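Running this now, will post back.
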Amino acid sequence: MNLHIIAGGMSGAEEGALDAASDIGTSYSGWMASGYRVLGGTRKDIGMTYGLEQTTSANLSDRTRLMVHEADLVLFFGKEKLRWFRTVSSYAEGHCPVETVNPDYDCADWVAAILIATHGAQNIFVTGDRDDRRPGIKEKTKAIMLKVLNEQAKQRSSSENPESAETVSPLPEMRGQAMAEVHRIQRAIKDGSAPGEGSTLHSQQRRQDLP
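Update: finished.
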């Protein structure tokens, strides 16, 4: 499975995901509003650094819709109560699942479990909260994604060089282990002690309960 990270130029979770992909050597792409516009100004620096494309419109929603519809899965680093989460979820309705990740926990295993349990999603749109609203989220997102992408790179290397790899569980068994981990975390969420922020593999089904 070759992951491809999709993220725009928003400060915080999106920038952290791009940093992680660049550091590991994972492919990435993304969109920014015309003029490299972001909330509160422009970020031509990050647009140029990561080669992000610009939409023809200065409307931020256009770049978000593009990235959602290029994705197989959206990872949202932040809380479901955010208006930004509801916006992203509305764009993803009927297209791809949206899963929340709590950046305050070292939950790389949770993210890896989601990737396996969603049957090999490859194009991952990473978005979430901003640094100005949740200080440190960029570095926390980067740290989690570095672990996830590094492990994925190791697995890909093992599959390409089986003679030098340790024994790897077959995919069906891996999916079973992933689902067991997801169910364990879901139970912990219900008890108020899990790394995910209200996340489930079927978060789309609960959107009708959101304001």
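Residues 167-174, 198-211 have pLDDT under 50 and may be disordered. More later if anyone needs it.
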